[in-house]
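Amino acid chain
________________
===
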Amino acid sequence: MRLRPDIYYIEKQRRKTDAVIFGNHEPATLAMTLQLSDYLDSHWGAQNDTYSMYYLNGQDNSLTLITTQALKEVTSRFKESYLTAAAESRRAEMLQQANTLDERESFSPLRKLRFQNAYYFTIRTTFNHPGHLATVIAFDLPINDLIPPNMARSNFLLQPDKTPINEGIAPEDTAAASVTLNGYWVEISAPLANASLKIVYRVPVTVLAIDLLRNNFWLILSNILLLALAVLGIYFIRRQFVRPSTDMLDQLEAQKSLSQEIITSLPQGLLVYNFNSNAVVASNQIADNLMPHLNLQKIAHMAEQHHGVIQGTVNNEVYEIRMFRSKFSPETYLFLLHDQDKEVLVNKRLQQARREYDKSLQARKLMLHNLGIELNQPINNLNQTAKELQNTTDPAVQHELVRKLAEQSESIIELIDNITLLTRLETQDWQPEQHSFSLSALIDGLLLDVLPAINQKGLTLFNHYLVGLDQNYIGDEKVLRKILSLLLHYSVITTAYGKITLNVDHEPGHPEQLIIQITDTGVGISDEEISNLNYPFLSQTLADRYNHSSGLTFFLCNQLCKKLNGQLEIRSKVDIGTRYTIRVTIAIQNEQVEEQEKLLDGVTVLLDITSEEVRSIITTLLNSFGANCIIVDDRLPGRDYDVTVTDNPQHYDNFTLLLASDEVGMQQLQDNYIRVNYNLGSVVIDAILLLIEQQISSDEHIEKPESIAADDINAYEQQLKSSDYYSLFVETVPVDLKKLYTELQQRDFISLSQTAHRLKGVFAMLNLLIGKQLCETLEQHIADGDRLKIENSISQIDSFVTRLLQQGNP
């Protein structure tokens, strides 16, 4: 019966075995299959297990399967897929067997049937036929009937036996079974007779152990009980007869360890020596270090003559040695070695600590005393002002007293705030803030605040700002402002006449490390007053008729500088002056990569300044903003300038900036004449820009041409239309106008001058006089480099050409 195009099922009467032929075959193959099936019916008919035979015919390359398994059930259930897959797998194995030249017979590992809990192995035999493919016959032989039921079949393995077989030895003389441990498995193996195979039975160690425990439970339990009884007996016997002596020994060892610990911990040397045995009984580390330098016989003899106490030099150190004789062992002596030099050093340290303590008490008394004075004076003044205000009815006087009262209260509040800030610094409850700020703006604002106090005493202030004006920093602006404000006010109070100089600079190559110096020409401050740098209110401070300096200033500023990773240094000489040096580290903000155009590029400033220091301040400021500075003594005749800067009110010129040190900001004295404080950089720049704006407005008013009449435009239009170059004018002039705007934007003054000259030639050729004059004016402005005037002239030319073309194209 044909199951598939290449699978044939053989029908027969006796159904003990089933036969299937895979692949096209010859008639002889079918006859042979029937004979084999009939033979195996009688041979395997009585067996209950599954037996199979595979016959790979080398004549027609067909595969024959004869098995005791019912193949019809398998084919109907799995639609022949399992049967086909098994046949293909066996064909591949048998072909591999046929291709193996040195192996005529082979065995497979143990396998499991897919539909039964049965294991089997396969034996394959190869028959060679000259001129044809090899014929391979294979038998699947079950092992279920050979294995006891209580042994797991999955634990059996069939492996090659590498032990050589000696044909002269009888099977019963071969090696017996062997047991090996392979990882967590116990492997029991035995060789098979007349085959190079061995059968291996694998049992997990845990399963084997559990099985042994289960089978020998009562035996193990009885052994454990006997062992426990033996241990208890030994324990009670040792406790009754042996333990007392052991406890005594432990107690003695503990007492010995305690005694040795006490001896080791003594602050002086201890030595117990037996002169009979010349042995050291006990000693500590100090005595061990001194032993090589001691003559104990001599020391004992001298100590007996001096009541057991002597003083001597041991290793260049003075020691007091006390000796005691033992009552139980007369030849055993106790020596105590006391270091006199160390005692003297300890006494000196105690005296120094006492002096420091007394000094601290004295400093605390001085601090409280000076703090009381510093608080008492402004509070009394505040109280007196309040009483005067209460008893006064004049509105003008009341207004003045209210202002004075507000100033005094602000002074007291500032002192209390400083004390509170210092308390937070001492308790580590304050940390600097981090935000971006402009140092130049901070300095300008600070100088505006301190300027009234400076003007009140008639002092002169100089601000040398040597840091980039457009540089921003990241740090605590308020703290830096407080440090500078406190020191500037202190400098104003200690300076009766003269000047105060503020220098702002940084370390070379390190712009984040700022160096700020405040130098005055005052009376100077004493060393006692400078001691307030390390302890507040330690000495009384100076005062003038307007204000009183604070004993907290130096210490607070020094602590704040330390918080900013810096320090405060004070150098002073009596009747010469004082210099305060502030060093702080403040991170700089990232600089812009692209270089921007400076604010005063192209502006020329004439400096008519008498004071060298003021000239240095203004020159540095203007150069940083890109201005060109000309000193009046070095000015060449005929050289133009935009603004005049002077400190002499008599030297007045058009667009003049008058410098002063007492001006609060800037003041417009009259048209084109401004008075400004030269210490305020931003205010000076604003004043110069204001003068430039006024100059531009004046130039536009002067140079603004008269409006061209409509009749003139018509005349030029008729003249242009009658010319042969009208079409050339229309095509080239608007293009050149666009070039003028583009070249001005690119600041290409050479090309701009060439384009203006070409336009002037066009206007001259067409006899357009107004256009020619406008181009000449443009060339003059290009030569001067005045961008604003250049732009104005281009706009006028553009307007003229536009009106002309509109008239020409109605």
Remarks:
- The mean pLDDT is 82.
- Residues 222 and 228 are 10 Å apart (CA to CA).
- DSSP finds 20 helices and 32 strands in the chain.
- The first strand starts at residue 2 and ends at 4.
